[in-house]
TrEMBL record:
This is UDP-Glycosyltransferase superfamily protein. PANTHER family: GLUCOSYL/GLUCURONOSYL TRANSFERASES, UDP-GLYCOSYLTRANSFERASE 83A1-LIKE. It comes from Heracleum sosnowskyi. It comes from the Eukaryota. One of its GO terms (molecular function) is quercetin 7-O-glucosyltransferase activity. The keyword Transferase applies.
Length: 305
């Protein structure tokens, strides 16, 4: 296993991914594909080489550290921390952040969406957010809008300024008039507070790690729409390891069109929520008192002193 990974990295010194390999770092961890490495999402070989070299330098720097503190938990992937004992999971941080206050954001939050959520029935709202970097073409953007409309459920959709070119003009004709007060689009949201709100039923997410831990910590099931890099592996954990969400399949044109069906499947199966509640309880316990994440953090502070 280690030899194959090393051979692949040597191949990448030329900036070229010649073959796809499926591998596991540990038998207890899900399989990964070399095609999902973060640098492979760039079509330009020179850019791929730059990104690859950047991560290679990071890995070299990590050899100089005493400990690696990370935003994760033994309850999310104990096999990973058995394999890498110098990594200290001290999170999820959002599980101990009862005020839901973040230090900063890429765009100004629309806090008024919280009063809109207050008016919605419990466990009814589809929360849709794809992080800071996801970009949709106009066809997929419009399909997403129409599919949200077809769910006949209230939805809160984060449409940041560059989610798609000319996003303010990209909605299907008449869409905003038809949805009225049943849907709300915002440029950015106070996500931790949104996910903690009792009206939120599920989270259509790009599966970025921060979003993943925030959703888990607040007991919100996922509909997974990963974009690139670690988001693809995070989807595997959500759907296949923790089993607290569902993924989408693209049609023959590379477009996702099955949102209504997947929302109904997810919310109609109580097993997802039962598993999620148990996982949430373990995560919250881990950052309190003698919980493992809390103890790791205390030990790290003592080590620095």
């Amino acid at each position: 296993m280690k030899r194959k990974c090393t051979d692949h990295l040597r191949t990448y010194n030329a900036g070229i991914l010649k073959t796809e390999e499926i591998f596991q770092l540990s038998p207890a961890m899900p399989a990964m594909s070399t095609s999902t490495f973060v640098w492979t999402c760039f079509t330009d070989l020179a850019t791929r080489k730059i990104i690859f070299d950047f991560f290679a330098k990071i890995n070299e720097s990590l050899k100089l550290t005493g400990w690696i503190v990370c935003n994760s938990s033994h309850d999310l992937d104990s096999a990973e921390f058995t394999l890498f004992p110098d990594m200290l999971p001290i999170s999820p941080l959002s599980a101990s952040n009862e005020l839901g206050h973040q230090a900063g954001n890429f765009w100004a939050e629309d806090s008024a969406c919280m009063s809109w959520l207050d008016k919605q029935p419990a466990s009814s709202v589809i929360y849709v957010a794809f992080g800071s970097f996801t970009v949709f073409d106009k066809t997929q953007f419009q399909e997403l809008a129409l599919d949200l409309e077809l769910t006949n459920k209230p939805f809160l959709w984060v449409v940041h300024p560059d989610l798609t070119d000319g996003s303010n003009e990209a909605y299907p004709e008449g869409f905003e008039d038809r949805i009225g007060c049943c849907g709300r689009m915002v440029g950015w949201s106070p996500q931790e507070k949104v996910l903690r709100h009792p009206s939120v039923a599920c989270f259509i997410s790009h599966c970025g790690w921060n979003s993943t831990t925030e959703g888990l910590s607040n007991g919100v099931p996922f509909l997974c729409w990963p974009y690139f890099a670690d988001q693809l592996l995070n989807e595997t954990y959500i759907c296949d390891v923790w089993k607290v969400g569902l993924g989408f399949q693209k049609d023959e044109n590379g477009i996702i069109t099955e949102i209504k069906n997947k929302v109904e499947l997810l919310l109609g199966d109580k097993d997802y929520m039962e598993r999620l509640i148990l996982l949430k309880e373990r995560l919250v316990s881990g950052v309190r008192g003698d919980g493992r994440s809390n103890q790791n953090f205390s030990n790290f502070v003592d080590w620095m002193k």
